[in-house]
Amino acid sequence: MAVLAESGSNPDVDLLYDINGLAKDAPHWFDRVMEFVGEYGLLLAMVLLILWCWWSVRRRGGEDAAPSVAALVWAPLAAGLAVLVNVPIRGFVERPRPFVDHQGLDVLVSGKTDFSFVSDHATITMALGVGLFVAHRRFGLAGIGLALLEGFCRVYMGVHYPTDVIGGFALGTAVVLLLSPPATALLTPLMRAVERSPRAGRLVRRRPPSAAGRDALLPGARPAPESEERDLAA
Fold this sequence. Notes:
Layout (H helix, E strand, L loop, with lengths): L1 H4 L5 H15 L2 H33 L4 H29 L4 H4 L18 H16 L1 H20 L5 H35 L12 H8 L9 H8 L1
C-alpha cells in the first residue's frame, strides 16, 4: 500500500488534492455544513429515505408489500454486516489516513486515528442505497445518489482517498447483492407471517389481508354500488 500513499503521478492522490482543494477555496460556513453533512447528515437522510419508502410500500399494499418490506429490512442488516466485513479488511491493508502521509490537506474532521481503507461511511450508505434499489427503484436511485454524495464529502473533508470511497461502494454493493437471495428467502416468509397478523400486519401493509377478509364477512355488509365498482375498475 506504500505506492498508494505516494503522490506525484498517482491519480488517487491527485484527485484527493483536487477535491479537498475545493474546501480551501470555500467559505468557512460551507465547510462546516459539509462537515456535518458528510459525518452525520447523509446517514440521517438515508434513514429517513428508508422510512419514507417503507411508508409508501405499506400504503400501496398489494402482493409485493411483503417482499418489498423484506428488502427494506435487509438493507440496514446488510450495511451492518458490510461494516463488520470491513474490520479485517482495514486491519489487513493498514492504510493510514491521507493527512498522515500528505501535507497541505484541509482536514475538516479531527480525531480520525483509525485506518483509511475502506470508508465505513461509503460502505454503509451504498449498502443502504442498493438495498433500497432492490426494494423500490425510484427510492433506490435517490439512495444511491446520496451514497455518491457521501463519498464525495469524505474526500472533500480530507479524511479518505478516492479509492477508499470506491472500495466502500464496492463492499457495500457486494454484500447486499451477493447475500440478497438467502436473506430474501428468510425474510420474505417472515414478513408474510407478520402481514397476516391482526395487529403487527400494519407494519407490512396499511390494511392486512385478514382484516380485509373479516370486513367482507361482516353481517349486513353490502356490495359496493355500481359507480364505485366502475371507479375501482378504472
